[in-house]
Amino acid sequence: MSTDFLPIRGFDHVEFYVGNAKQAAHFYDKVFGFTPVARLGLHSGVRDRASYCLQQGNIRLVLTSALQPDHEIARHCALHGDGVKVLALEVGDVEAAMREVKARGATVLQPAASLEDEHGVLKTGIIKYAGDTVFKFVERAAYRGPFAPGYDALDLPRREGTGLAAMDHIVTNTYLGEMNYWARWFEEVMGFTQLTHFTDKDISTEYSALMSKVMENGSGKVKFPINEPAEGRKKSQIEEYLDFYCGPGVQHIAMNTADICTTVRQLRERDIDFLRVPDTYYEELPARVGQINEDLQELKELGILVDRDEDGYLLQIFTQPMQDRPTLFFEVIERHGSRGFGVGNFKALFVSLEREQGLRGNL
Ligand code: FE2
């Protein structure tokens, strides 16, 4: 048995580059129930950017905007729109992590470096991933502050939240022919293994198809599915993403909840729009998934999907895109034993996705 050369403790945070971080922070606070915990900007002596760190359960989001036009963050937003820039993973030793991935061919964008303030030392290192997306390794065992050096703590009352508890998986869209490249990159550079592989036979509709490989780290703590479009009669949802994001990037972030009905009900009350599957989906459901704990009528009313595999079942739902460009969206997922991704829902879901895509004039 080979040892895990890149022990990952879990997701540390996800950083978005957005046009207006202040308003985005308000949205994730008031709608999704994240509590703003720290911020950085002019008030803390940073002249070129503003960042807000928000937290709910074990999920940390960082929203960042440029304060100057000729700035990497501003250019990123002009090209991609609002989207995910940084996938941050917590490790015990950033220097070791950077040494291992560099030796295996990672493109280093920022070597291991220490940031320090009165709360302690935080170490980070950054490597390139698909498109303009990057992976950041974070070592925070010696840091006691609210998020990172340079940030001021925000002592706001903790929000009630919507039950979102942890990151489950984060999906990347890539161009046709790139999925295998990145799957191999995860294996060789990051020491991940392939958990599942979906072909266009699994995931196809009248209009489009996609292929997907799910990569998982040694401890199973983090999972990154990678999609690429497959040839269809019309433009696939992955191509629509690639056209509007102007390249590969993060397609969706799945977050766990222990009570998906309550979470979705609260998000619906706060005007989050979810994808709708046809009512016929629920007629076929009992035969497909068998006995589950939840009330079928409630699932139908809320539009929650169910899938079962040999280990158990899962409940899931997908939001509409989070910005005007049809790019990033969220998934809410509740697992009962299943370690899958809802392949049994893909078809019903993609018919629904394509209906929306058609309404946008992109099919
Ligand atoms: Fe997903």
Task: Provide a descriptive summary of the structure in words.
The chain is of the alpha+beta class and 363 residues long. It has two domains: 8-153, 2,3-Dihydroxybiphenyl 1,2-Dioxygenase, domain 1 (Roll), CATH 3.10.180; 164-360, Roll (2,3-Dihydroxybiphenyl 1,2-Dioxygenase, domain 1), CATH 3.10.180. Helices cover 26% and strands 36% of the residues. It has nine helices and 17 strands. The strands form two sheets. The chain has a nine-stranded mixed sheet. Strand 12 (209-216) and strand 13 form a beta hairpin. The protein is globular, with a radius of gyration of 20 Å. The relative contact order is 0.13. The structure holds fe (ii) ion (FE2).
CATH superfamily of the largest domain: 2,3-Dihydroxybiphenyl 1,2-Dioxygenase, domain 1
State the low-pLDDT regions, or none.
Answer: none
CATH topology assignment of the largest domain: 2,3-Dihydroxybiphenyl 1,2-Dioxygenase, domain 1
Mean pLDDT: 93
Largest sheet: 9 strands, mixed
Strand content: 35-45%
Oligomer: single chain
